[in-house]
Amino acid sequence: MTDFNEEDFEEEEDDSTPAYENEKLDILIRQMRVSKTGAFYVDILSNDDIYIIADEVKINRCWNTLRLTGHNQVKSDGAKYLFDALAANPSIKNLHLGGNSLGDTGISIFQPFLSTNTTIIDLILTDNQITDIGGKLISEMLRQNSTLETLVLHGNPLLDTGVISIAQALHKNHTLTTLKLYRTAMTDVGAQELASMLRLNTTVKVLSLDDNEISDIGMQAICTALHDNQILTCLNIRQNQITDESVNTIVTMLQTRRIFDRLDLARNQLSDQGKETIRQTNTNNNNTVKSLIL
Predict the structure, then answer these.
(1) Which keywords describe this protein according to UniProt (predicted)?
(2) In the chain, at which end, N or C, are there fewer CB atoms within 10 A of the end residue's CB?
Protein backbone atom coordinates (compact mmCIF):
# COMPACT_ATOMS: atom_id res chain seq x y z
CA MET A 1 0.00 0.00 0.00
CA THR A 2 1.28 3.44 -0.94
CA ASP A 3 1.89 5.84 1.91
CA PHE A 4 0.41 9.36 1.65
CA ASN A 5 1.89 12.30 3.44
CA GLU A 6 -0.42 14.70 5.23
CA GLU A 7 0.66 17.54 2.98
CA ASP A 8 -0.74 15.65 -0.04
CA PHE A 9 -4.19 16.45 1.28
CA GLU A 10 -3.59 20.18 1.79
CA GLU A 11 -5.80 22.32 -0.38
CA GLU A 12 -4.14 24.28 -3.11
CA GLU A 13 -3.98 28.00 -2.54
CA ASP A 14 -6.63 30.04 -4.35
CA ASP A 15 -4.80 32.32 -6.76
CA SER A 16 -7.96 33.98 -8.14
CA THR A 17 -8.36 37.73 -7.65
CA PRO A 18 -10.99 38.54 -5.03
CA ALA A 19 -14.04 40.47 -6.24
CA TYR A 20 -13.73 44.22 -5.73
CA GLU A 21 -15.78 45.60 -2.86
CA ASN A 22 -16.48 49.11 -1.61
CA GLU A 23 -18.52 48.96 1.57
CA LYS A 24 -19.09 52.72 1.78
CA LEU A 25 -20.36 52.82 -1.79
CA ASP A 26 -22.63 49.82 -1.18
CA ILE A 27 -24.13 51.57 1.86
CA LEU A 28 -24.66 54.78 -0.14
CA ILE A 29 -26.44 52.89 -2.90
CA ARG A 30 -28.72 51.15 -0.41
CA GLN A 31 -29.61 54.49 1.16
CA MET A 32 -30.60 55.93 -2.23
CA ARG A 33 -32.19 52.82 -3.70
CA VAL A 34 -35.78 54.08 -3.54
CA SER A 35 -34.95 57.75 -4.14
CA LYS A 36 -35.62 59.51 -7.44
CA THR A 37 -31.96 60.47 -7.78
CA GLY A 38 -28.78 58.46 -7.65
CA ALA A 39 -26.23 61.11 -6.70
CA PHE A 40 -22.55 60.31 -6.23
CA TYR A 41 -20.73 63.46 -5.15
CA VAL A 42 -17.40 62.08 -4.03
CA ASP A 43 -13.85 63.20 -4.66
CA ILE A 44 -12.84 60.14 -6.65
CA LEU A 45 -14.73 57.13 -7.96
CA SER A 46 -12.49 54.39 -9.27
CA ASN A 47 -13.20 52.48 -12.45
CA ASP A 48 -14.25 49.51 -10.29
CA ASP A 49 -16.70 51.76 -8.45
CA ILE A 50 -18.32 52.63 -11.79
CA TYR A 51 -18.99 48.91 -12.32
CA ILE A 52 -20.77 48.72 -8.95
CA ILE A 53 -22.92 51.76 -9.76
CA ALA A 54 -23.67 50.45 -13.25
CA ASP A 55 -24.90 47.14 -11.81
CA GLU A 56 -27.40 49.11 -9.73
CA VAL A 57 -28.42 51.23 -12.75
CA LYS A 58 -29.32 48.04 -14.64
CA ILE A 59 -32.02 47.10 -12.14
CA ASN A 60 -33.05 50.32 -10.39
CA ARG A 61 -36.31 51.73 -11.74
CA CYS A 62 -36.74 54.41 -9.06
CA TRP A 63 -33.92 56.67 -10.22
CA ASN A 64 -34.85 59.13 -12.95
CA THR A 65 -31.66 61.12 -12.43
CA LEU A 66 -28.10 59.83 -12.24
CA ARG A 67 -25.36 62.19 -11.09
CA LEU A 68 -21.73 61.08 -11.22
CA THR A 69 -19.73 64.22 -10.60
CA GLY A 70 -16.20 64.74 -9.37
CA HIS A 71 -12.65 63.98 -10.42
CA ASN A 72 -13.40 60.38 -11.19
CA GLN A 73 -11.18 57.77 -12.82
CA VAL A 74 -13.46 56.36 -15.48
CA LYS A 75 -11.67 54.22 -18.06
CA SER A 76 -13.01 53.14 -21.44
CA ASP A 77 -14.24 49.76 -20.19
CA GLY A 78 -15.97 51.37 -17.21
CA ALA A 79 -17.63 53.95 -19.47
CA LYS A 80 -18.88 51.26 -21.84
CA TYR A 81 -20.22 49.16 -18.97
CA LEU A 82 -22.07 52.21 -17.59
CA PHE A 83 -23.55 53.15 -20.96
CA ASP A 84 -24.66 49.55 -21.55
CA ALA A 85 -26.43 49.66 -18.18
CA LEU A 86 -28.12 52.95 -19.09
CA ALA A 87 -29.27 51.44 -22.37
CA ALA A 88 -31.07 48.76 -20.37
CA ASN A 89 -32.79 51.26 -18.08
CA PRO A 90 -35.67 53.34 -19.50
CA SER A 91 -36.16 55.21 -16.21
CA ILE A 92 -33.10 57.49 -16.33
CA LYS A 93 -34.12 60.84 -17.83
CA ASN A 94 -31.37 63.11 -16.50
CA LEU A 95 -27.70 62.16 -16.81
CA HIS A 96 -25.05 64.34 -15.17
CA LEU A 97 -21.46 63.25 -15.78
CA GLY A 98 -19.48 66.38 -14.92
CA GLY A 99 -15.76 66.04 -14.21
CA ASN A 100 -15.30 62.44 -15.29
CA SER A 101 -12.51 63.06 -17.83
CA LEU A 102 -14.37 61.05 -20.45
CA GLY A 103 -12.48 62.79 -23.25
CA ASP A 104 -13.09 62.14 -26.91
CA THR A 105 -12.64 58.38 -26.37
CA GLY A 106 -15.46 58.30 -23.84
CA ILE A 107 -17.69 60.30 -26.18
CA SER A 108 -16.95 57.87 -29.02
CA ILE A 109 -18.27 55.08 -26.76
CA PHE A 110 -21.21 57.18 -25.61
CA GLN A 111 -22.30 58.55 -29.00
CA PRO A 112 -23.88 55.38 -30.51
CA PHE A 113 -25.88 54.81 -27.31
CA LEU A 114 -27.25 58.35 -27.14
CA SER A 115 -27.96 58.61 -30.87
CA THR A 116 -30.79 56.11 -30.51
CA ASN A 117 -31.73 56.75 -26.87
CA THR A 118 -35.34 57.80 -26.36
CA THR A 119 -35.40 58.48 -22.62
CA ILE A 120 -32.61 60.88 -21.61
CA ILE A 121 -33.71 64.52 -21.93
CA ASP A 122 -31.05 66.27 -19.84
CA LEU A 123 -27.31 65.65 -20.44
CA ILE A 124 -24.53 67.43 -18.55
CA LEU A 125 -20.94 66.77 -19.64
CA THR A 126 -19.15 69.64 -17.89
CA ASP A 127 -15.33 69.48 -17.61
CA ASN A 128 -14.75 66.22 -19.46
CA GLN A 129 -11.79 67.24 -21.67
CA ILE A 130 -13.91 66.98 -24.82
CA THR A 131 -12.20 68.60 -27.81
CA ASP A 132 -13.43 69.47 -31.30
CA ILE A 133 -13.15 65.75 -32.15
CA GLY A 134 -15.68 64.94 -29.45
CA GLY A 135 -17.71 67.95 -30.58
CA LYS A 136 -18.10 66.39 -34.01
CA LEU A 137 -19.26 63.12 -32.43
CA ILE A 138 -21.80 65.04 -30.35
CA SER A 139 -23.02 66.78 -33.51
CA GLU A 140 -23.57 63.41 -35.18
CA MET A 141 -25.59 62.34 -32.15
CA LEU A 142 -27.73 65.49 -32.34
CA ARG A 143 -28.56 64.76 -35.98
CA GLN A 144 -30.12 61.44 -34.94
CA ASN A 145 -31.39 61.95 -31.39
CA SER A 146 -34.98 63.17 -31.13
CA THR A 147 -35.35 63.23 -27.34
CA LEU A 148 -32.57 65.31 -25.78
CA GLU A 149 -33.72 68.76 -24.61
CA THR A 150 -30.77 70.08 -22.59
CA LEU A 151 -27.06 69.80 -23.42
CA VAL A 152 -24.42 71.32 -21.13
CA LEU A 153 -20.79 71.30 -22.28
CA HIS A 154 -19.15 73.84 -19.95
CA GLY A 155 -15.40 73.73 -19.59
CA ASN A 156 -14.60 71.56 -22.58
CA PRO A 157 -12.02 72.80 -25.14
CA LEU A 158 -14.34 72.40 -28.11
CA LEU A 159 -12.78 75.36 -29.92
CA ASP A 160 -14.59 76.97 -32.85
CA THR A 161 -14.39 73.74 -34.85
CA GLY A 162 -16.36 71.77 -32.27
CA VAL A 163 -18.89 74.58 -31.76
CA ILE A 164 -19.42 74.85 -35.53
CA SER A 165 -20.12 71.10 -35.78
CA ILE A 166 -22.71 71.31 -33.01
CA ALA A 167 -24.31 74.48 -34.43
CA GLN A 168 -24.66 72.95 -37.88
CA ALA A 169 -26.31 69.85 -36.42
CA LEU A 170 -28.91 72.10 -34.80
CA HIS A 171 -30.06 73.46 -38.14
CA LYS A 172 -32.38 70.47 -38.34
CA ASN A 173 -32.64 69.30 -34.73
CA HIS A 174 -36.15 70.02 -33.42
CA THR A 175 -35.95 68.88 -29.80
CA LEU A 176 -33.00 70.59 -28.09
CA THR A 177 -34.16 73.68 -26.19
CA THR A 178 -31.13 74.49 -24.02
CA LEU A 179 -27.49 74.67 -25.13
CA LYS A 180 -24.77 75.78 -22.69
CA LEU A 181 -21.24 76.36 -23.92
CA TYR A 182 -19.39 78.21 -21.11
CA ARG A 183 -15.59 78.18 -21.33
CA THR A 184 -15.26 76.30 -24.61
CA ALA A 185 -12.54 78.55 -26.14
CA MET A 186 -15.01 79.85 -28.69
CA THR A 187 -14.24 83.00 -30.70
CA ASP A 188 -16.30 85.09 -33.14
CA VAL A 189 -16.00 82.29 -35.69
CA GLY A 190 -18.03 79.91 -33.52
CA ALA A 191 -20.42 82.69 -32.49
CA GLN A 192 -21.15 83.52 -36.13
CA GLU A 193 -22.03 79.88 -36.83
CA LEU A 194 -24.36 79.91 -33.83
CA ALA A 195 -25.96 83.03 -35.30
CA SER A 196 -26.56 81.15 -38.55
CA MET A 197 -28.12 78.34 -36.52
CA LEU A 198 -30.49 80.80 -34.81
CA ARG A 199 -31.82 81.91 -38.19
CA LEU A 200 -32.98 78.37 -38.94
CA ASN A 201 -33.56 76.62 -35.60
CA THR A 202 -37.06 76.80 -34.14
CA THR A 203 -36.58 75.13 -30.74
CA VAL A 204 -33.52 76.51 -28.90
CA LYS A 205 -34.78 78.82 -26.17
CA VAL A 206 -31.69 79.09 -23.93
CA LEU A 207 -28.17 79.79 -25.22
CA SER A 208 -25.29 80.29 -22.77
CA LEU A 209 -21.90 81.43 -24.07
CA ASP A 210 -20.25 82.88 -20.96
CA ASP A 211 -16.49 83.15 -20.49
CA ASN A 212 -15.42 82.78 -24.11
CA GLU A 213 -13.56 85.04 -26.55
CA ILE A 214 -16.52 86.60 -28.35
CA SER A 215 -16.06 90.22 -29.45
CA ASP A 216 -18.37 92.73 -31.13
CA ILE A 217 -18.24 90.79 -34.41
CA GLY A 218 -19.78 87.72 -32.84
CA MET A 219 -22.23 89.67 -30.71
CA GLN A 220 -23.49 91.69 -33.65
CA ALA A 221 -23.98 88.53 -35.71
CA ILE A 222 -26.09 87.00 -32.93
CA CYS A 223 -28.15 90.19 -32.45
CA THR A 224 -28.84 90.42 -36.17
CA ALA A 225 -29.98 86.80 -36.25
CA LEU A 226 -32.35 87.51 -33.36
CA HIS A 227 -34.23 90.17 -35.33
CA ASP A 228 -36.31 87.39 -36.86
CA ASN A 229 -35.86 84.69 -34.23
CA GLN A 230 -38.57 85.01 -31.60
CA ILE A 231 -37.90 81.57 -30.09
CA LEU A 232 -34.73 82.28 -28.08
CA THR A 233 -35.75 83.86 -24.77
CA CYS A 234 -32.53 83.58 -22.76
CA LEU A 235 -29.05 84.67 -23.87
CA ASN A 236 -26.15 84.49 -21.44
CA ILE A 237 -22.99 85.99 -22.91
CA ARG A 238 -21.21 87.46 -19.89
CA GLN A 239 -17.43 87.73 -19.52
CA ASN A 240 -16.55 88.06 -23.19
CA GLN A 241 -15.04 90.97 -25.14
CA ILE A 242 -18.14 92.97 -26.06
CA THR A 243 -17.72 96.77 -26.15
CA ASP A 244 -19.84 99.86 -26.90
CA GLU A 245 -19.43 99.03 -30.59
CA SER A 246 -22.26 96.54 -30.09
CA VAL A 247 -24.65 98.86 -28.23
CA ASN A 248 -26.58 100.05 -31.30
CA THR A 249 -26.99 96.48 -32.56
CA ILE A 250 -28.19 95.34 -29.12
CA VAL A 251 -30.66 98.24 -28.97
CA THR A 252 -32.06 97.42 -32.43
CA MET A 253 -32.41 93.78 -31.46
CA LEU A 254 -34.34 94.70 -28.30
CA GLN A 255 -36.67 96.93 -30.28
CA THR A 256 -37.62 94.05 -32.57
CA ARG A 257 -38.18 91.48 -29.83
CA ARG A 258 -41.59 90.58 -28.41
CA ILE A 259 -40.18 89.10 -25.22
CA PHE A 260 -36.87 88.12 -23.65
CA ASP A 261 -36.75 86.39 -20.28
CA ARG A 262 -33.06 87.02 -19.66
CA LEU A 263 -30.15 88.86 -21.27
CA ASP A 264 -26.86 88.66 -19.36
CA LEU A 265 -24.07 90.92 -20.65
CA ALA A 266 -22.21 91.39 -17.35
CA ARG A 267 -18.41 91.50 -17.12
CA ASN A 268 -17.89 92.58 -20.70
CA GLN A 269 -16.30 95.87 -21.75
CA LEU A 270 -19.40 98.05 -21.92
CA SER A 271 -19.09 101.58 -20.58
CA ASP A 272 -21.53 102.99 -18.04
CA GLN A 273 -23.08 105.06 -20.82
CA GLY A 274 -23.42 102.00 -23.04
CA LYS A 275 -25.13 100.09 -20.24
CA GLU A 276 -27.49 102.98 -19.57
CA THR A 277 -28.45 103.17 -23.25
CA ILE A 278 -29.36 99.47 -23.24
CA ARG A 279 -31.19 99.79 -19.94
CA GLN A 280 -33.19 102.81 -21.12
CA THR A 281 -34.13 101.08 -24.37
CA ASN A 282 -35.51 98.17 -22.39
CA THR A 283 -37.55 100.53 -20.19
CA ASN A 284 -38.95 102.40 -23.19
CA ASN A 285 -39.83 99.10 -24.78
CA ASN A 286 -42.02 98.02 -21.85
CA ASN A 287 -39.25 95.89 -20.36
CA THR A 288 -39.01 93.42 -23.21
CA VAL A 289 -36.18 91.81 -21.20
CA LYS A 290 -37.54 90.64 -17.86
CA SER A 291 -34.08 90.08 -16.40
CA LEU A 292 -31.45 92.40 -17.85
CA ILE A 293 -28.00 91.93 -16.33
CA LEU A 294 -25.31 94.44 -17.28
Answers:
(1) Repeat
(2) N
Q: Which residues of 165-183 are buried (b: 16+ CB within 10 A; e: fewer)?
A: bbbbbbeebeebbbbbbbb
- Predicted confidence at residue 9, as pLDDT, reads 44
The domain limits of the chain are 102-293
What local confidence, expressed as pLDDT, does residue 71 receive?
81
Cβ neighbors of 46 (< 8 A, separation 6 or more) are: 22, 72, 73
Tell me the pLDDT tens digit for each residue of 246-280.
999 999 999 998 789 999 999 999 999 999 999 99
Could you count the other beta carbons within 10 Å of the beta carbon of residue 235? 22
Burial readout 35-63 (b: 16 or more C-beta within 10 A, e: otherwise): eeebebeeeebbbebbebbbebbeebeeb
Neighbouring CB atoms inside 10 A of 280's CB total 11
Residue 9: how many CB atoms within 10 A of its CB?
7
